[in-house]
């Protein structure tokens, strides 16, 4: 009997799925590595961004000083004194019948008659006034001191759609002067504008001459970077007050309050 060869039984490989599983796990691991890398925060860049935003929004409430590049030492103080004295001399040279400069304790005041700047009831500068203010701006833009512009009127009431009262008119006139100064080089951050209307007169409001003196724009330049005048406007001039009797009787007298004011003298050649 012829012998038969036994058939070799082939067993199926049941572990082939592990190759695909390993590939899947590897891809899944790579996916999570990429996701982690994308979501991780760059601490240094985040800190730089946070510091920049803090500086931009000024969270500490600090304001930049109006003067730039100033040394706080003695040399800086000496420079300020020299610059202020030089400014005093240059403003004195601008004096005429319409511009009057006075040196007071810590500041210089330039008193400008409203008639030299504006028509009656208007805050539009005259052409000749613009030329004079351009010269003034050329002087002021070279110094670091803060500037306050104060507008005043007489006591005659005004009531127009543009200027309902003397307050609006006085503020608009001071702002018009400020606009010319800034247009010709003076740093706007150094300027403040205030309108006082008929308050704080320097003369009586009975005569035409007195009312003309009260219609003015004052320009104050402070030496120590602050303007104490703003706490007591009208200080430093012959400010008139009216004393009245009881029962609303007419004024009895006009008594000026006087402070020491030193006029700036022009230097003689």
From TrEMBL:
Pfam family, one: MotB_plug
Domain of life: Bacteria
CDD domains listed in its UniProt record: OmpA_C-like
Stretches that traverse the bilayer: 21-38
Compositionally biased residues, Polar residues: 238-250
Membrane topology: Single-pass membrane protein
GO cellular component: plasma membrane
Family, as annotated: Belongs to the MotB family.
Name of protein: Flagellar motor protein MotD
Annotated organism of origin: Legionella quinlivanii
Lineage of the species this protein comes from: Bacteria, Pseudomonadati, Pseudomonadota, Gammaproteobacteria, Legionellales
């Amino acid at each position: 009997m012829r012998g038969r060869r036994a058939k070799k039984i082939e067993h199926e490989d049941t572990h082939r799925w592990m190759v695909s599983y390993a590939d899947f796990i590897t891809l899944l691991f790579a996916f999570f590595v990429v996701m982690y890398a994308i979501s991780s925060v760059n601490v240094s860049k985040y800190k730089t961004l946070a510091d920049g935003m803090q500086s931009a929004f000024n969270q500490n409430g600090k304001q930049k000083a109006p003067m730039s590049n100033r040394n706080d030492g003695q040399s800086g103080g000496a420079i300020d004194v020299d610059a202020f004295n030089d400014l005093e001399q240059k403003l004195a040279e601008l004096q005429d019948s319409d511009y009057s400069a006075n040196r007071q304790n810590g500041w210089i005041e330039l008193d400008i008659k409203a008639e030299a700047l504006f028509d009656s009831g208007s805050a539009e500068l005259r052409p000749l006034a613009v030329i004079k203010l351009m010269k003034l701006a050329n002087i002021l833009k070279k110094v670091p001191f803060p500037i306050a512009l104060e507008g005043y009127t007489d006591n005659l009431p005004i009531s127009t759609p543009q200027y309902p009262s003397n307050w609006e008119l006085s503020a608009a006139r001071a702002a018009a002067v400020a606009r010319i100064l800034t247009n010709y080089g003076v740093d706007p951050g150094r300027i403040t504008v205030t309108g006082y209307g008929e308050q704080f007169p320097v003369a009586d409001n009975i005569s035409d001459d007195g009312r003309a003196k009260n219609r003015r724009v004052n320009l104050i330049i402070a030496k120590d970077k602050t303007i104490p005048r703003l706490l007591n406007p009208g200080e430093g001039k012959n400010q008139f007050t009216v004393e009245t009797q009881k029962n609303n009787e007419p004024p009895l007298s006009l008594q000026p309050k006087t402070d020491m004011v030193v006029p700036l003298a022009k230097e003689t050649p």
